[in-house]
Amino acid sequence: MNKSVFLLLSICFVAGTAFAAEPVKIGLMGPITGSWASEGQEMKQVVDLLVEEVNAGGGVNGRKVEVITEDDGGDPRTAALAAQRLATMGVIAVIGTYGSAVTEATQNIYDEAKIVQISNGSTAIRLTEKGLKQFFRTCPRDDEQARVAADAIRKLGVKKLAILHDNSTYAKGLADETKGLLAGEKGVEIVFFDALTPKEQDYTTILTKMKAVNPDFVFFTGYYSEAGLLLKQRKEMGWNVPFMGGDATNNPDLVKAAGKDAAAGFYFVSAPLPKDLPSKEAKDFVAAFAKKYGNPPNSIYPVLAGDGFRVITYAIAQAKTTDPDKLTDYLHTGLKDFPGLTGKISFNEKGDRIGEVYKVYRVDSEGRFILQP
Amino acid sequence: MELFAQQFTNGLAVGGIYALIALGYTMVYGVLKLINFAHSDLFTLGSYLGLTLITSRLLSGLGPLWGTVLLALMVMGMIALTGALLDRAAYRPLRQSPRLSAVVSALGASIFLQNAIMLIYGARNQVYPQNILPKMTLSAFGVQIPLVRILVLCSSLAMMGALYFFVQRTKVGTAIRAAAIDQGAARLMGIDVNRVILMVFMIGPAMGGAAGLLVGLYYGQINFTMGWSYGLKAFTAAILGGIGNIPGAMVGGLLLGIIESLGAAYVSLAYKDAIAFLVLILILILRPTGLLGERVAEKV
User: Fold this and answer.
1) Which of A167, A205, A229 lies at the smallest CB-CB distance from B10?
2) Does domain A143-270 have CATH number 3.40.50.2300?
3) How confident is the model at residue A20 (pLDDT cuts 50, 70, 90)?
4) How far apart are the C-alpha atoms of B120 and B41, rounded to whole Å?
């Protein structure tokens, strides 16, 4: 009898210590391969760095944090598989991912598995209009971006506007939204609205077609790879129309592809660049990142993934639980003005980030991104 | 009219690239009845090797013309070797297996190559130096054509011409054609079929590698996934012209480029690819063997 009590106690004890030592598992889902691999690999670098910092400081609630990375390949189908794998691994929350269409393919999987999802780069409006309680994002939404873009277009005194997108969830959403905002206005006429095929290299057909309707400003809502080629080929055609891009054109590779002379004068709307982040946390982080990897982060989205990670670990520490419902409640209502790397973070009832984030940038003749007043 | 001419030349330049890549698909298919999915990645590899050679400044003393010619020859040579290696590693062991095994092996080789390029060169876009080819724009009758475009088109036409001559007039070319018609009979005639296949796996990829280099030199921005889009189009071009037929691949490539360009200009930009594939379907309904495809004789 005594023996069995002892056995039972020791089992409890062993199980108890095992439980205490069990790390907090957080998933990171990002495009480690595929055409957005540069974003995904930097996401992993950012989160790896932050995990090291957290664990060096004793973890959260006395438990170490373990990050499990899954590759979504920038592709919705791959992402759905990655999400299913993560859901079976006992993760509490998932950070990611970048593309809106990719995130959309995984939302319901995480929702059913009761896993908190914090996207870092998916700005499509409808992602937070579905009533999924456990979905959050550290990036702003496209309607906010469209509002800032439309303001910039008005301010620049554009009369004949061309809008070009690439048919992706994100780019088309931003294009439609901007068109909607400007459509009723007398001053601005939208003379061109169409889509290109992403991942091609020859866009002279599109540029020739666009030039024929003679716009005085072009708003391209797609990604930086295409934007760089558009700028370069526009220059080769001897056409000097000013271009503006959405936040997906915010990448120094754009200038490399277009060349400094073709990129000069290009406007883009974006969350602030890592180098322009004002807070002390951000400056320390950028310095630590540069020290570890040899260069500062190139893009803001990996830093937003870092903010997702910091928010969730902070929430676990504050709410002293890993229960998804309690964490969700805390993120919706408890978290106020958390000092994130990209500014203060709070979430509204939809899971969207509150506050203005977008800024207008312009490329100068040296290829630097200059924040516009 | 000016607009039409401009769009037509835009299409020709892209079509030239499609045609060069399509040659690799069509030659391999002609001899082995195999779709070499890894071909598009050899094309990408050509682009990257070109970049490595340029940034290594190995050829910088030679001046732009001879430097570029030598560069092209080196890239073609290296890609030809890679093609031969690919045949040895991925296809030759499966020569007696069902055709499906070889197709799966081709897919595997494609994934392997693409990820190898990513691991070696990184996932970010790479950019060619801007000042290799002269930046001049010719304008005639209101049509603006950058000189580089004409160079791209001319060099792809020249390579296709050389290949056509090689296949039609030389002994090795005759052997390739013989093996394409009937491997067994060719073997009985004393042709070393394995050698012919090796040859095909060197010439096709060399053309693809050259196309990759041209893309890099002209468009400047390369990415490890770029082969997919070009590969799909080039494969379509090969079918359009009649797969297995060398002049067919050339005609199909140029035609596809022009259809795309004019379709985008006069119908819809967003449906550019849909228009191109619609034309493909129509042509295949009317001529199931493609434009220049030969009627396949029943083998008795």
Assistant:
1) A205
2) yes
3) low
4) 14
* Residue in A34, A25, A139 with CA at minimum distance from that of residue A92: A25
pLDDT level of residue A356 (50, 70, 90 thresholds): confident
Q: Which residue in A has a C-alpha nearest to residue B267's C-alpha?
A: A209
CATH 3.40.50.2300 fits A2-140+278-345, yes or no: yes
How do beta strands A93-95 and A189-195 pair?
unpaired
pTM: 0.80
- At A151-206, the pLDDT tens digits run 999 999 999 999 999 988 889 989 999 999 998 888 899 999 999 988 888 899 99
Express each pLDDT in A287-337 by its tens digit.
Answer: 999 999 999 998 889 999 999 999 999 999 999 999 999 999 999 999 999
Residues 27-66 of A with CB under 8 A from B: 33-35, 37-38, 40-41
DSSP string, A67-124: EEEEE-TT-HHHHHHHHHHHHTTT-SEEE--SSHHHHHHHHHHHHHTT-EEEESS---
Contacts of residue B164, defined as CB under 8 A and 6 or more positions apart, other chains included, come to B246, B247, B250
Six token digits for residue B161: 């011409």
Does ipTM exceed 0.95? no
Tell me whether A238 touches chain B (CB under 8 Å).
Answer: yes
Cα-based distances in Å from A114 to A66, A349, B268: 19, 17, 44
Domain borders along chain A are 2-140+278-345, 143-270
